[in-house]
Design a protein that fits this description.
The structure is a homodimer. Chain A has 10 helices and no strands. Chain A is an all-alpha fold and about 230 residues long. In chain A, α1 crosses α2 and α5 runs antiparallel to α10. Chains A and B meet through α7, α8, α9 and α10 of A and α7, α8, α9 and α10 of B. Chain A binds a DNA duplex (30 and 30 nucleotides) through α3.
Chain lengths: ~230, ~230
DNA sequence: TTATAATGATAGTATAACTATTAAAAATAA
DNA sequence: TTATTTTTAATAGTTATACTATCATTATAA
């Protein structure tokens, strides 16, 4: 028996659902691997097609262009993190404990999950950390937003912000703090690996424990009732 | 009489110092305007050359490529913010007051300064907000870092982190908090303008007051001695 | 089995990101 | 002031990217 998680994403993100065919799943799988390896700028559909022994034209039948494919991958990740949070907080009452699990889920998202056979979670997380914000730092962000391309991220943030408000209803910026937790998590892993003078934490051998401790420290200070 | 601020940047960032010639200053001036208008991806040296009535080849004599030009602009901005902070905190003793001025300087950086005749600060800030992180989110970040391309940012962060430690020597993550102040400042202005559901603040007509208040709120909570 | 859809193979266009060469103009030094 | 050097402009060319179009082939579904 095997369980397969099916992540559902906005239909506008693709021309043909990549989850429904071998070629589609290959596109997802190998685009993650290639982008994680050579970076988003050097990545293109020709290289991807060569890797999966298909053609550029075939890849274009699934995704409008590489920018939208990136948004797809990022949305997939956000949905996956939301899924992890939901199952891990299922029986938890205490909101502070819930937030702890949320923070831990950012880290846990790097563990490979056999229920997602065509996604290497560890590589995908690396991609998110180094390329993720390029998904929404584009000149046409408003049009893309109108098409609902960022809904998954917004829903995830809303979920976290609600927990923040539960912990301390008087805290004035629950949404900003929720987005900040994500951004900090990604940024400081990146800084620790590449620009260590921009952070206080270390991540030896991709052990993100210090990042987790830091985020909880920030949460405690910010959400203390004083 | 006129005062002209000369920002000094790492020599590795350019092939010929753009501050030393009319063409060079034109490159700086118009690259800011064009990138702020059409975004970094659509920007290229041909469009820039057309705008300043020069040629692609001439632009290439100043900058290796558009990525390095972006780092130059971003570094220029960081140096400028550092300069603003220094003159505005000159006679201030109280570190909490200093941090308030630092936070205010992020906002103030958008005011046009006649002492920098070839830089439109307001446009440059918009560029930093929407494209800034692309300067260091590149596959060759380590090599660029080795060449000292990000020193200006690091120095600025160090200066802010020192103030943070002055306010509360027991605070465990002064550097992370300093970088976070910058990132939050930029991100939440961007979110307020493009993805409002990712923040709690509003920036009507580029009035960044709410962002300033939020950052000070975070600073107070985080640096309170408890 | 036939129709329909998905994929592959191939070709072509416009633009980007450079590099090279030579001539003209501008700056500077003798 | 002229001669020399440096900078810029004009032009052309190369390789790669980001697509689009067409048609043949293969898989799938009715």
């Amino acid at each position: 028996m095997s369980v397969v998680i099916n992540i559902s994403l906005n239909e506008g993100l693709f021309l043909r659902n990549p989850q429904d065919s071998v070629l589609g799943r290959n596109i997802i799988k190998h685009s993650i691997l290639i982008i994680a390896e050579i970076g988003f700028e050097a990545f293109n559909f020709k290289k991807l097609a060569q890797e999966i022994k298909s053609t550029e034209a075939s890849v274009y039948r699934y995704f409008e262009n590489k920018q939208v494919l990136l948004i797809y991958l990022v949305s997939w990740y956000w949905e996956y993190v939301a899924f992890l949070i939901k199952i891990n907080t299922l029986n938890i009452e205490d909101p502070r404990k819930k937030l702890e699990i949320i923070i831990n889920s950012f880290v846990f998202a790097a563990l490979d999950n056999p229920a997602t056979p065509y996604v290497d979670e560890s590589k995908l997380q690396r991609l998110i950390i180094s390329e993720g914000t390029k998904a929404y730092h584009t000149i046409d962000v408003d049009e893309k937003n109108d098409k609902g391309f960022f809904l998954n991220y917004k829903e995830l943030i809303k979920m976290v912000a609600d927990v923040v408000s539960e912990i301390n209803p008087n805290f004035k910026y629950p949404i900003a703090f929720a987005t900040n937790l994500f951004e900090m998590s990604n940024n400081h892993i990146y800084f620790a690996n590449h620009l260590p003078r921009l952070t206080d934490v270390k991540v030896p051998k991709n052990n993100y424990e210090e990042v987790e401790i830091m985020l909880n420290y920030f949460a405690d200070k910010l959400l203390a009732d004083n």
